[in-house]
Design brief:
Blueprint: E1 5-11, H1 22-37, E2 41-48, E3 52-59, H2 68-87, E4 112-116, H3 119-135, H4 150-155
Length: about 170
């Protein structure tokens, strides 16, 4: 039985290609790295697509009752906004919010989250996220896509330095 391992998907507002530039993908990666190094989560798998992300992660004990998803999305949105203000202010208009609680909106509300309770489901989700870039035509082999944990699982190469194999926490 897997304990508290979650599959998480966040989609960019209106499926727009917000995450095409690598510098924006790096913002997501830096945030994940911080959360791992600050002992908030274990990160088991990820893929950052042009318009959405998939994660497999687990909260650390001190963060069980905290909304890490909201913290993660709020921080990444804020950092992306700062970057857009500097480099592409005209693109900001694509993300102008219709809500009164914010000026810009980068992530769709209500991201998808599901707890995985067995190895079979975890393996299915792992294959799904790693095959995502291949299916989208971004690469021929999942391990060739830079912003993914596929190389970690397929080639045993930890290019990022903060991924934990999910089987370590079964």
């Amino acid at each position: 039985m897997l304990h508290g391992i979650e599959f998480f998907t966040a989609t960019c507002l209106n499926w727009q290609p917000l995450l095409v530039p690598d510098e924006r993908k790096d913002i997501v990666m830096d945030s994940l790295k911080f959360m791992v190094q600050d002992n908030r989560i274990w990160l088991y798998a990820f893929v950052i697509m042009p318009n959405h992300i998939h994660l497999i992660w687990r909260r650390r004990d001190d963060w069980i009752n905290k909304n890490i998803e909201q913290m993660f999305l709020k921080f990444t949105a804020q950092q992306i906004k700062f970057r857009l203000v500097e480099t592409a202010p005209e693109e900001l208009e694509l993300y102008r919010s219709t809500q009164t609680d914010r000026k810009y909106h980068f992530w769709e509300r209500r991201p998808f989250k599901a707890t995985m309770y067995n190895r079979k489901v975890a393996n299915q989700k792992l294959e799904y996220i790693h095959y995502n870039p291949v299916k989208a035509g971004l690469c021929n082999l999942s391990e060739d896509y830079t912003y993914s944990s596929a190389r970690y699982y397929e080639l045993n190469k930890d290019d990022w330095g903060f991924i934990t194999h999910y089987e370590e926490h079964l």
